[in-house]
UniProtKB/TrEMBL annotation:
Residues 27-390 form the Aminotransferase class I/classII large domain. It comes from Pseudoalteromonas holothuriae. Belongs to the class-I pyridoxal-phosphate-dependent aminotransferase family. It holds the Pfam family Aminotran_1_2. Gene3D superfamilies: Aspartate Aminotransferase, domain 1 (3.90.1150.10), Type I PLP-dependent aspartate aminotransferase-like (Major domain) (3.40.640.10). Homodimer. GO terms for biological process: L-phenylalanine biosynthetic process from chorismate via phenylpyruvate. The gene is aspC. The keyword Transferase applies. SUPFAM superfamilies: PLP-dependent transferases (SSF53383). This is Aminotransferase. PANTHER family: ASPARTATE AMINOTRANSFERASE, ASPARTATE AMINOTRANSFERASE, MITOCHONDRIAL. Its cofactor is pyridoxal 5'-phosphate. One of its GO terms (molecular function) is identical protein binding.
């Protein structure tokens, strides 16, 4: 059976990671992988996480199964983080299952959608995180794209987006990035979120909000404002969240799939289907990550520590955006890179061509994915000069 298989290409980002690791150039810079990095290029464990882990080691009483929905206290804390004060109003309509990462949440959501309507199409932004397309297709759903990023003007194709979403058939799903759009860094503003929320109600599509970077854009609350607006407007909504970035828990695989239904009875029925989906994929989620997040969010002291660490990550990213813009301008680069400073989160497209990306890798050991998406957090105050010189060289 296995001999019938044809080899598949490796994920371009994973290939890039491997090439970077092997590169012996002491000046090498990795702008490919989507993880936060500090000034030293490290992705350290947060102090709040370390303390919560010490507490857990001391206090964990059993390794028995935690149940299909995972840690229920964690689930409620996630609802609070996502919905803020809106949760009180929505509470009897909200159900959450803890999942293995944001990817697990999306895969569970995909199977849930399949059970609701096997003919549903999932509409995603052009471009989107590549895994969105594979994981919805893997669940047997059709994926279509709607215009989003304006490559030419480094902004949004908002009118085109709305015109396409107006045509979406009732019962389809529209995936929206809550904040820090991956890969473009371009987010909707409040007015635009209002328009999309009203459109969802009018047209009858179900929004699916992917929130993988809450706290990396403006603030925990601000980054959820679009999601909260939609939750206040529509009857049904799916939210897939991740604690990989904002808690730095990448390899612990912790996220959540939240459903908001039109009333409590529908929420209970939907939840039973969601849990049956979970049962048939991985039965029950792992405990560690949820326990860490719950411990942090249950303690005033650890929450404060986490907020400070999250603020530090966000401030660093935003500072680097300004630094990149200014450094490229200072090197006399003709192209306008001011858009980098207007975008959010870790990613932006540099907007340079394949040949220039290849030269950056070959001549300067600067690793960027083929789309020209860069992880801003890979730049530091130490390597910025080297980076800006290299970009100026390949562009001029
Ligand atoms: N959604 C988006 C847009 C992402 O960028 C990511 C991570 N790269 C995820 C979801 C999933 O994150 P994870 O599974 O690592 O929690």
């Amino acid at each position: 059976m296995f001999s019938e298989l044809k080899p598949l290409p490796t994920d371009p980002i994973l290939g890039l990671m491997a090439a970077y690791k092997q590169d012996t150039n002491p000046n090498k810079i990795d702008l490919g992988v989507g993880v936060y990095k500090d000034e030293h290029g490290d992705t350290p464990v947060l102090k709040a996480v370390k303390q919560a882990e010490a507490f857990r080691l001391e206090n964990e009483k059993t390794k028995s199964y935690i149940g299909l929905a995972g840690n229920l206290e964690f689930c409620h804390k996630m609802e609070q983080l996502l919905l803020g004060e809106h949760r009180t109003l929505l509470a009897n309509r909200v159900r959450t299952a803890q999942t293995p990462g944001g990817t697990g949440a999306l895969r569970v959501a995909a199977e849930f959608i399949k059970r609701c309507n096997s003919n549903a199409t999932v509409w995603v932004t052009t471009p989107t995180w590549a895994n969105h397309i594979s994981l919805f297709e893997a669940a047997g759903l059709t994926v279509k794209e709607y215009p989003y990023y304006d490559y030419e003007n480094k902004g949004l194709l908002f009118d085109e987006m709305i015109n396409t979403l107006k045509q979406v058939p009732k019962g389809d799903i529209v995936l929206l990035h809550a904040c820090c759009h991956n890969p473009s860094g371009m987010d909707l503003n409040e007015e635009q979120w209002k328009t999309v929320a009203e459109l969802a109600k009018e047209v009858g599509f179900t929004p699916l909000i992917d929130i993988a970077y809450q706290g990396f854009g403006s603030s925990l609350d601000d980054d959820a404002k679009g999601l909260r607006l939609i939750a206040d407007t529509v009857e049904e909504l799916i939210v897939c969240s991740s604690c990989s970035k904002n808690f730095g828990l990448y390899r612990e695989r912790i996220g959540a799939c939240t459903l908001i239904a039109k009333d409590a009875a529908t929420a209970d029925i939907s939840n039973s289907v969601l849990l049956s989906v979970v049962r048939s994929i991985y039965s029950m989620p792992p405990a560690h990550g949820a326990d860490i997040v719950n411990t942090i969010l249950s303690s005033e002291e650890l929450t404060k520590m986490w907020h400070e660490e999250l603020d530090e990550m966000r401030t660093r990213i935003n500072g680097l955006r300004t630094l990149i813009k200014n450094s490229l301008a200072a090197k006399g680069v003709d192209q306008d890179f001011s858009f980098i400073d207007r975008q959010n989160g870790m990613f932006s497209f540099l907007g340079i061509n394949k040949e220039q990306i290849e030269r950056l890798q070959k001549e300067y050991a600067i690793y960027i994915v083929g789309s020209s998406r860069v992880n801003v957090a890979g730049v530091s105050h130490t390597n910025i000069d080297y980076f800006a010189n290299a970009v100026a060289d390949v562009l001029n």
